[in-house]
Batch of 4 targets.
Target 1
Amino acid sequence: MGDGRIWIGLDIGGTKTEALVVDAQMGVLSRVRASTDTADPECLLAGSIQLIHRALAQANGAVSQVGGIGIGIPGLVERETGVVRLAVNLNLTAYPLGAALTAALGIPCAVENDARIATMGVYRWLNEQQPVRHVAYVSIGTGIAAGVVLDGRLYRGAHGMAGEIGHVMVEADGQLCSCGARGCLETIVAGPAIARQYAEAAGLRAPVTAETVFQAYQADDAVAQQVMRRVSQALSRALQWLIMTYDVEKVVLGGGVTAAGAAFLDPVLAELAQMRAQSALAQEMLAAHKFVVLPTDFNAGTWGAVALAQQG
Amino acid sequence: MGDGRIWIGLDIGGTKTEALVVDAQMGVLSRVRASTDTADPECLLAGSIQLIHRALAQANGAVSQVGGIGIGIPGLVERETGVVRLAVNLNLTAYPLGAALTAALGIPCAVENDARIATMGVYRWLNEQQPVRHVAYVSIGTGIAAGVVLDGRLYRGAHGMAGEIGHVMVEADGQLCSCGARGCLETIVAGPAIARQYAEAAGLRAPVTAETVFQAYQADDAVAQQVMRRVSQALSRALQWLIMTYDVEKVVLGGGVTAAGAAFLDPVLAELAQMRAQSALAQEMLAAHKFVVLPTDFNAGTWGAVALAQQG
């Protein structure tokens, strides 16, 4: 890739779209953002093309220099064809986004699910620091999902569902989840669940955000401590499952909730330390160096999209 | 492999060793068994060579016809070098079993961990019935472990620990496990754990076997029903974890405990049906057709060893 070509990563979210342009040496040439226009597929396409042109202009680049574009989409994507099967938040159903962008721009465009693409970004980020071939990326925000690179390759599973751990049952007869089941991991560890548990335990009537809980935790609020204990117990067991099934070298935690920093992480790390203390196996498999938190200023989505573009 | 060569699979267990000789069309030429002599590495080697010669004689085969030998070992094995790093039950430490057998017989010998090799056997068995590329094999006996084939390839993980689910914590402050931790999956679902839970719940002084519990369950014994409910809850959640992490097409259950048949399986299938009833996602991911029980007369170990031999 040292041929002077430039590469574009596009992270299309339900609210915002971000474009990243890098040179052959992975140096950032430009980074631009815009609201995502989800009115209909044509608006989304036009908005994406406009943002790509804006990013290129800011990078002083020309379409003819672009080696490829990688695009991350929050939804069900056919990687091979670039067809977005279903992206509820983007108002897309069976839409050939890859082909439409390629036709409009004359540049190869590859489309992939956003969680997978973020995993590719995380994998590349880790490998800039040290060589690793087995990595799980756990994204914790409104929902929870894991993406995995196994033996150096993004692993999708038989139906593209590998790592959908948000809906694994962790508590019998627990809280009702959006999926219809009870006691899913998301009903305890996701951002809205953290807020809900705190509001319930504290007897609050007005809804709170997870951020409120983290602040209360930092201020030694007993209810927040109790909620975070419960959250971190469920999460640390999920992390153990991930490690014992995938046997990854690193588990990277990211997503909106991890941005809380110490208030979210300290209790999780304390739980893991407690598990390590119990057995030699846990000491090895749950070693502290395996758990990494993604820096909040690293956009795994756009970097992963660049990686996808370069894979073609 | 239609060249007239024959292949040998050797399943070396802590108690018995079994050898299987097949022709190029995978037809069984002979199957022989002997006690495993674990007195020292030389005895184990001599016993293995003797059994191979006996199997060949019974198959009317000659050493010169053998394309390769695959060997399964209950322990930590370096697949590439054929060195058995540690096999406690076989009294082997850092022993170059592959090289020793190759030198003695003049035949290429490949060595692999027995759980992995059984997974290869299960994978081949499944593919004789229908094409599948993502399979988990869960062996439930004295211990519990899973082996996986992902995208058609045996997956080992970064440290050869992928699928070691027996020691994942499923019950906080549960029973003390042999690994030193509390509440591991093995403390509820493994054969000895099933026996222990029944003896405790029934207030028995004399130890019982898992078989006793299964018989009591079949006879509508209330305590056995209660124990099996607990066992099947823990197991069905573990199966959900396996499916949501690996997204396999099939989960095959085998090992000594599954030989109990309906008494073991019916409550597990009932739990899974209950989970399916809760959500559309579970209905799809935990579909009944994904769960298969290995026939008790199918020796996954020797068939997997044959598959290993043919891979070279």
Target 2
Amino acid sequence: MNIFPLVAVGVSTLNSSNDLLDVRYHLILNEDQELLNTLNIDNPGFNSLYSMASGEENNEFFESISNTLSVTSRQKLIFHKIDKDVPISNICDAYLKLYLLSLKVSKPNSINLENIFGSLANVAWTNLGPVDVKDLNLFRSRNGEVFVRSVDKFPCLTDYIIPEGVRIADSSRVRLGAHLSEGTTVMHEGFVNFNAGTLGSAMIEGRISAGVIIGKNSDLGGGCSTMGTLSGGNEVKISVGEDCLLGANSGLGIPLGNRCILEAGLYLTGGSKVEILNSKNEMIETVKASTLSGKDDLLFIRNSLTGAIQCKPNGKSVVLNETLHKND
Amino acid sequence: MNIFPLVAVGVSTLNSSNDLLDVRYHLILNEDQELLNTLNIDNPGFNSLYSMASGEENNEFFESISNTLSVTSRQKLIFHKIDKDVPISNICDAYLKLYLLSLKVSKPNSINLENIFGSLANVAWTNLGPVDVKDLNLFRSRNGEVFVRSVDKFPCLTDYIIPEGVRIADSSRVRLGAHLSEGTTVMHEGFVNFNAGTLGSAMIEGRISAGVIIGKNSDLGGGCSTMGTLSGGNEVKISVGEDCLLGANSGLGIPLGNRCILEAGLYLTGGSKVEILNSKNEMIETVKASTLSGKDDLLFIRNSLTGAIQCKPNGKSVVLNETLHKND
Amino acid sequence: MNIFPLVAVGVSTLNSSNDLLDVRYHLILNEDQELLNTLNIDNPGFNSLYSMASGEENNEFFESISNTLSVTSRQKLIFHKIDKDVPISNICDAYLKLYLLSLKVSKPNSINLENIFGSLANVAWTNLGPVDVKDLNLFRSRNGEVFVRSVDKFPCLTDYIIPEGVRIADSSRVRLGAHLSEGTTVMHEGFVNFNAGTLGSAMIEGRISAGVIIGKNSDLGGGCSTMGTLSGGNEVKISVGEDCLLGANSGLGIPLGNRCILEAGLYLTGGSKVEILNSKNEMIETVKASTLSGKDDLLFIRNSLTGAIQCKPNGKSVVLNETLHKND
């Protein structure tokens, strides 16, 4: 689905040199044609960093929006347009694409995020909002103690948007750009990177790396790992199908189909050799794990006597505990 | 020990529709018979959600308690009585039982917590107290930036009670309802769920799941996992005896006796087959791990040449580093 | 390099009994001889806990420094001198040595930290600064809601100093006393204890225990463990050379040389027996892992069919993703 061109309204916090530190978007304007006309977005000059030139501060229209969005003196109102889904070229692009992911307008891996690291500023995220690391001492001397939650290019999701029907036990561990579906619980040991997330109810006590998608009704056990593609050299996008269970402290290096189980403590990489057993526990053949990518109904264990990684048909089905997922 | 009936005084924060978001209890009143008479708790109507009806705000007695507890305009004074240890029926029950666990009046698994998920509200826990997720935008526009630590049904222990002689390196990772004994240190990678905890000095760098109890002088290494009973299908309550060591990144799926060691990186599930060796390293038999539940003086390793999980008599004793545990 | 004697200026927050809770140092004064003369540091009485006696509050010189450092009414200006690198004898020593480590004046394991646990106070670290756990209720009744990030002897690095060119995704997980070099990114699952850190660019998604040093251009995968020497009984200091990769959920119990790889999910302890293979995958001998300490170009895996830990020559080189490390 092509969602571009698209215009959004947001508020950016500035550092002491008036550089943008972030953009907190509030509205997508594609529907409001009257407003789009007012903004004159068809003017080829519109897609600049932000359209609110200093002369416009007296404009009644902008002023009323600024009031609604509670724009403070260290902030600026932003109107930003993305015409086409090309690589990210500035911080307004970057935050808008992260916002679209967390708003669930876009699915992970469906929009172009190239150059996102180069477009984001490294910011001290505090209880008083984003602060440039260089400004922090000055900021503290003016505002008293400041709590620094993070020094990072990406902010936490909950500072920007809290999706409905979701629990996030430690909000430091979910980045803006995470795609969390209703009924998702991210426990304390869970983690969700940007451009990653869940497609339905899910219990997340492990780490969802950038680019990784988890199907509905799946359960990632405490401390489990999913291989990402940003670092580590892995080139295959990892995903988990529906009704799957990754045991505690396990790890996944191939895409899984539906109704698969990975035993607690087992790290399955794409290159692992795996013994294939039939339902009578007879060994049939030995294959590389990557050849099992995307197949349904598999149970992966390490035989506790021979040490071999084995794969057999999965008879059990995973049932999420419903009371844990009614997040209202 | 039957501690009920029991009356407690607390303060609840309300959302914009006057629903209770939490209850921060301050006192257990069982001893103070005069006060109990004043409250008329034998009146069968007492055990309602909260006794302070609107007309009572001018009551001098309630007013003085409100002042002592610094009750603000978005809060309400609560007197709550639990008659018998039956399933939880409302948020006041739920917070009182969590409080009793963290106050160490009740041990984990000793009180009825049925229906706790259904009785708790999903709340945004902020540096300005609990806020209904639906009220957050309004709350921000009134109070400026707000730091959201968590969006969850359970709050952090340290917002309610800080047990004596305890260190908690990252307070986001210990829920109200955790039972932490003096001399317990929960490091950054440690985690303690509600209805779980320690019975004496302990070094916790791994995860204590709901229902799991750790004996005194035991050490849970970094990132280790203990299987819980809330999700994952395990039905046996896991526990760790005294003087035990769970190595870093290990995992435990059976109850352990005293003086047991689980090697770093080894995940022992109840169904794992285990080779039993004698003190001369001779193999005696092969058993399911669950048959070793609760036995003392065992060392579990994975043989690094054969890949087999093995169990032998544990000669070494675990000694906690005392300087790390004097938490004064 | 001997950096002592050395004088530093800082600010300490006090509890309600006027005990020091911490010291936030701002300047090392060794260069400023004029100031040192003013302070009369050669006076044998100087090295007391702090030099600013009550009578000196009217001293113009001290007052101007107090203003610069925004010393509040619950704080005190501190001048502290360490003459020689002997065991820590008080909280001013302790914080100064932690500061020197994080300022990268001292490398981990290069200064005497004996008695540091006994010298530090267990403090509630809040968004309004350090508070004595015993004062917390009083403090809350005066200041309203207070966010407690941690109850610990060590504070978070970012409350004291933010090194240049560093990202720390969850600041709760890096203690003051961590030594983070430019180009280091500590992700959400990363952790860095005091007296530990990196010597160059590094991607840290695992745990750097006290005493552990990571060489430049190395990558610690999500949830990986490095054995520390504080607890657990290990006596060998663990380190990681340059251009190394520790896979996700792996663990390291020996010092590694350069260009080594530890497979995801593999825990290598010093006592593990390891099969040595040549570049043709032929088994040569079996050795204890500790005999491989510090050797370069090794790849450690667990054979997924035999369960044996194996070591072979490492052909691949690890290349950090540069865009993730430009932390400006």
Target 3
Amino acid sequence: MTSLSELGEFGLIRRIAESLPPPPPEVIVGIGDDVAVLRTSGNEYLLATCDVQVENVHFIRSAVTPFQLGRKIVAINVSDIAATGGTPLWALVSLVLPPDIETAFVDGLYGGMRLEMEKAGAAIVGGNLSRTRTDLVVDFSLLGKVSPGEILLRSGARAGDLICITGTVGDSRAGLEILLHPRLAVSEQSRDHVRARHLTPQARLQEGRVLARSGLVHAMADVSDGLVQDMRHICRASGAGAELWADELPVTQECREVSTAAGVNVFDWVLTGGEDYELLFTVAAESAHEVQKIVKDATGTGCHVIGKILDQQGVRVMFGDGTERAFPEGPTGWDHFAGMKKDS
Amino acid sequence: MTSLSELGEFGLIRRIAESLPPPPPEVIVGIGDDVAVLRTSGNEYLLATCDVQVENVHFIRSAVTPFQLGRKIVAINVSDIAATGGTPLWALVSLVLPPDIETAFVDGLYGGMRLEMEKAGAAIVGGNLSRTRTDLVVDFSLLGKVSPGEILLRSGARAGDLICITGTVGDSRAGLEILLHPRLAVSEQSRDHVRARHLTPQARLQEGRVLARSGLVHAMADVSDGLVQDMRHICRASGAGAELWADELPVTQECREVSTAAGVNVFDWVLTGGEDYELLFTVAAESAHEVQKIVKDATGTGCHVIGKILDQQGVRVMFGDGTERAFPEGPTGWDHFAGMKKDS
């Protein structure tokens, strides 16, 4: 019997996918991706994704307000839709509430969800309420749409493509460090900046739409599991590999300050921290500059070129001093089961 | 501050619905119903529903196999789609797994889901895996479709309509009694029958389609919360009331046997037990016989006439001895929060 910790989260997903019958032809992208892409009788693809926040796994109730939690659960789902170049439409919210939850908590949670849903132009249309004896769970399912001519998938990266990313990576992991170690000696400004990026991440929805409409992007994913892990998702889906250039990775001064105070190599957070919700995408080398300009002009967001797609499988990171770090198969970012105790 | 136990599950749903902005016009039915009905660019409505199974709330792990749990989570969602007259298409599965879960559990769970999904002609297209410190949660979101000319909603019941139900009610609650009190003195046959109806309920998918196509049904819902509670959902949505005839309620001999052994009035289970997953619907008095025949001929399932729709609000049950039981506002079936301890 293979244990869940041996399989890991992505091994278990593969096992599940292999156990199910082949999907019908209307399923353009099914199990294994962040977003299902579905053909309906209409002229646009339907998108469907879900993401969960579990108490004491994804958040600690004392360290987050219900309003922040509501904002975050929406943003992380909107980010999945954004990574396809799509538009969010409708959501179902499944709440599993412990006995000590009060009405004010539910009010705050929905207040946060409402704010982010309005920003995304989407509506909550249903859901479910249940109780639990123990930890709170918020499961959020989001539907969206995208034109078949514009959709961006993980697959599609080609050897020679340049790898780009919106914004900066690492702040969210630095923010988590502040929550775990509130007495860390860092400036108030850095503390506030990284904590906000962890607690209320922002989906790159406009940027995703602009990138999709540009017609220049070959493959795209959002950085939720961690830069290397999400890069690997693109590589696997595209049958390619990638080289990331450490010196080109966009890291904020605030993230660097927190990592120094924590005595951690900032690249650990940047490469494997996760929850950045930036868009990671590949373009032909000759269009990189144009894409950067298009995104900047339309949204004000900067994109950095951080590596290139290779023929050979695997993801490796090249450092400025000439050293190289390879990431072999196996969990390198957020993996729900990798840390679990081995069963028999 | 109003407590969740004062509000109750349905009060909380109303509170949430009122806190959200008015839905856009594409949302035909939104929060408050079991199924969201959504207009897309295609020629059919999109249906979206979700339902959850929480360990130690909806099931006890020692009393159910993972295969049974997988079957049930699919069936209860398919039942919601069936109650609109629609067809299930695609599902997302969100699994929140405690540390002691083994791969075999996940295999069994997906095996059960696969069986019921294949019966329903639908496919699992994605989902999410997470861990938890404590109780297992399976959240299941199901999408479907229905023709705008055929859709059946809770609203639409008219005074004078007869109220009909497929199959029988009460068995599921009797099955729960067997799980809670395994030593109850009942025959093996009754035990097996009611336990199966509790653990592996069957959605009335074919019956729902036939009823929708008949063009004769005014309003429909599935019996998940309990007969009186779901009747009340139809009445509220239709601005009407209902009278149920106790002597006409279809109850199996097996259910009666278990209720007698348990020393319970069988009507308590029949009226408020819930999880029957039968279809409850209203038709004009003159078409009741025709509808019964159509369903019987197409599916083999019997439908019973169990009451009538009234002008005045509320649900009351008339017994054969001339007595009457009124069900005032407030929880009368499964309510997640009604039993919770009052907070301050």
Target 4
Amino acid sequence: MHPKRGADKPHVVVLGAGFAGLTFCKRLTSGLARVTLLDRQNHHLFQPLLYQVATAGLAAPDIAQPVRSILRDRRDVTVLMSDVTGVDLARREVSHTGGVLGYDYLVIALGGRTSYFGHEEWARHAPGLKSIDDALAIRRRVLSAFEDAEVEDDEARRGKLMTIVVVGGGPTGVEMAGALAELSRTVLRRDFRRIDPAKARVILVEGGPRVLGAFPANLSAKAERQLRRLGVEVRTGVAVREIHEDGLELASGERLAAANVIWGAGVSAVPLAGTLGVPTDRAGRLRVEPDLSLPGWPSVFAAGDIVSLTDPSGRVVPGVSPAAMQMGRYIARTIAGELGTVTPPRRKPFCYFDKGTMATIGRSAAVAKIGWAEFCGWPAWAAWLVVHILFLIGFRNRISVLLQWTYSYFTYRRGARLITGLDPEREAQGAAPAAGPENRMT
Amino acid sequence: MHPKRGADKPHVVVLGAGFAGLTFCKRLTSGLARVTLLDRQNHHLFQPLLYQVATAGLAAPDIAQPVRSILRDRRDVTVLMSDVTGVDLARREVSHTGGVLGYDYLVIALGGRTSYFGHEEWARHAPGLKSIDDALAIRRRVLSAFEDAEVEDDEARRGKLMTIVVVGGGPTGVEMAGALAELSRTVLRRDFRRIDPAKARVILVEGGPRVLGAFPANLSAKAERQLRRLGVEVRTGVAVREIHEDGLELASGERLAAANVIWGAGVSAVPLAGTLGVPTDRAGRLRVEPDLSLPGWPSVFAAGDIVSLTDPSGRVVPGVSPAAMQMGRYIARTIAGELGTVTPPRRKPFCYFDKGTMATIGRSAAVAKIGWAEFCGWPAWAAWLVVHILFLIGFRNRISVLLQWTYSYFTYRRGARLITGLDPEREAQGAAPAAGPENRMT
């Protein structure tokens, strides 16, 4: 299947509409090539705010935009919603569920997925947070546990229902734990009659010696203090030994009975990376050349979380959205420079520019490192807000998120406390409620 | 399981947190009784706007509010999210998945469900529209069909993917068909490269002689004209004979190949109504006394769509939200008047006050009948907007819906074009993406 327009122009195929793939499409000079962008989802997701959908602060559409809507004015870009099933580098072909695409240039930006370090059986008890569906599943599970606790008479079962364990003390885990503590201590506080949501336990487990290991030690300490102030129990330096239906066991032997375990500990590359026959690192990520091309395949690039790279300054490029966007931009410039030139310029190596990192920990509190400057508390939180609003794609989304945040800030409420998808099995059977079990009547 | 507070006060159990049940709880004088409200969902749903979630105009949280959040200041009301499994009128007990509740007064407000007139097997091919999950499923199916059409090479299959049939010409069907036509003709128009969404067929099938059969004939005619102007093919006076995977067959013998069939034709009472041993009508609804009590059970009331009643003026009370709210209010007054009185006043019959009906048909067009006055076009549309914003529950929701509508009006875009829940089977297995099929990689 080939797009119709400009069949004479070189064909660039882009796999993945995350930060890397989308930035590439937007930045490639218009009209130079036919571009086909494949993604299994119809939307680009603003992942940094995904935890807010999981904790009922934002609605799913607030942080996602249809890919084809973002690129509607790029008539040279065709967007296909389809699953990539394989790449044949020798034949320069990509197979996907809807057919086969030949390419002149290929950009692999398929990102990562939740990794359980060989314990894939933990997935069903400890969902990760990579997609809108993941976030909605966590929201459903967490809110349902409080509902079940209100009905439950047994003390022990009630305690389990009101315990949430977050595994992984990186930014995702820290932001998640902070938001969950706020949810139970302020948002839900006055809504129940038989339980006291403020007594819910939120436990953050981190295998390393401190939370936010990528930040300077004093910011880690501040983040941990802020988490404790919100009521989060922080356990550092202890690994997870087992996760099962009833909760989890730590390497220390401690058992935590918890209805909800949320996994924010590991990410690895999507499996396709391992099928290309090129070197990968321990997390399955592609070891690319300094110009982000695959070794031996100069017209095939990789970008974003699927890449493992140490840049010329000796810095390991982190798996964060600014790095992905910089890679997308770099590859767009490289390809644009080579198209229509008989003797393409020599490629310069990709250099990552670290604009800083930040993590928010509940209301009015955050930590941030921007260049040499370190912030915490209110200034870091304000910076976090501004950056996240600015980088959200779409005017509507920015206004809507600002509105939700303003509302939540002043009312201590959250606007998306919906339990949806109650009965996934019903949906799997394709049946409408009429065909559902007779006892579900309310 | 009994609530703790005020155990000496009479216990009122309310089944269902729709318009009837929620209005009852809000209107019953505070402190007179212990009230327990049961619902299988955690949210009250503003059903009149559900079609806008199904057609990507609004996000799900915009039209729903957590029940316990709405009633947070009513300390005498306990909300339990639980499925009702049975009512024992003789023992004055309600069983639900979390236990058994005794009652002094019972209000049954469980509403209706999609009915396929004995063809329950149609449910999997023609989803109805009663819950948030229904709406999200329809949104997923409709948006996915356009995505699949963009990838599809075969002309016939592409035509099927781009055909949507709406069965039922009542307000739900009319509003749905209008919104779908607008979606394909304006919103999606410039976003695809290989298909022209404006060529999508939207067909509205109605068994009766005209659409909006409950409206005056001239308004029906205007609504039909407006639908045709939007590009909807309207087929009246023809019943559906069969619905299957490939589309549907009409009684006229015509076959319509359609990837999406949406069912807006029938509603019946939930099955519980049939288990009470009291008279029901053909749609399974409870035939109540003029005071909305069940015959022979003066302390058991029914309200909302589960009720079949002709009021003293000889008018059949319609299954619309104003009627449900009026019933809830009436029962609250009745019970409040009897509590704490040795000789309760004689109950007056319930009278339905018809405030009018309206239906919107796309941008700037609607029909409305308010008292003797009939409107159409822009004035009816403006009235529709004002009424729907006013009756939405929650300040945040009102602002958010206003924002979305303003945005859509000026940009011809829709803010909730998300395909979520792509793989319900995965969810049913409780597995995170990591455990998903290896070929889903993008």
